[in-house]
Write a structure and sequence with these properties.
Chain lengths: 247, 125
Amino acid sequence: MVRHLYKAAGAGLVLYALIAGLMTELPVMGPMGQSNRNIFYHVPMWFAVVVMMGVSVFNSIRYLRMTDPDYERSGAGNDLALTDIKASESAKTGVLFNILGLVTGMVWSRVTWSSHLPANRFDAWWIWDPIQICALVSLLIYLAYFLLRSTFQDEEQKAKISSVYNIFAFVTLIPLYFIIPKMLPGAHPTAANSDAGGGSFVMAGKLGGDFSIIFWPSIIGFILMGYWVYELQMRTAAVSLTLSEEE
Amino acid sequence: MKPRSILLLVIIALFTVVLAVSFSGNSSSYTTFGEAKKSGGTVHIVGSWVNRESANYDASRDIFTFSLQDTTGTVSPVSYHDPKPNDFDKAEKIVVIGKFETPDVFTADKIIMKCPSKYGDKEVK
């Protein structure tokens, strides 16, 4: 019972963020109009990405430790396969949130940065802002992870090599998400030349009470929902592995 | 490894490199009017709209002209080959992308409205 509580909490918080985020009266900010509410949905996506990729790299490191002959383990074979499934399925969930983050961002950019352009122009949706490019690069790095996995026939070799790759992939997120946005100017409010003074992943101190009372619950909600999605995917993959072994 | 997978990996790697290159190209180009005049290349300039009453739209040539003050305080006329963008009055900061085609007037190919970064309480209107 207790281990299912987080699902209820996640669903409840996301529901709250949807209802309160769309219904509450909020200050209108310049050209953004009512679209400033997207902060409750666009930003949590990236928090969920970081958490899911964190779960993924944790399991990849755990996998590599398990293959160490000195590492004492119980039920080795099955456990190894499950750890690999955990690493890949959480990365899959992270990629899902990465795509959702890009899409919510593109919609937002269309109605704010580029609301004066007709919708059929590419730059109405994508302006090659440094933070946009960082997000796209991180997506490609993780797509390459799945491509790498798809090239191996041997399960053990696949798990081992992709675990090593996953560590490198996670390390690239640090400059892409936390360092480059702090250094380069751009259109995002978190860019180095913004009025926020630049460079915080979380816009600390720039979020008034009206916003933060919905913003933070939304972030926790989407992270918990993301974990739920991951758990379902992981269990499905584990079941299909067991079934294929029985055949 | 299957040849198709290797090909896909190479494509992703190449795409990432292209992105990285376009990145350094794009990011370094945020500058000021003074620098833009010297370099003559295409740049991004962040500024705020000043002398609002002098801005005008010439319908016969489809050119909107306005004054922009960059972060160093330099004011320069900017011409944009389109009518005045909607929400232009409300934008806190404006990014113009273009270059000095004539020595005195900056020609903007693109305009981006930069949004306020303070998600404040009620007093922000």
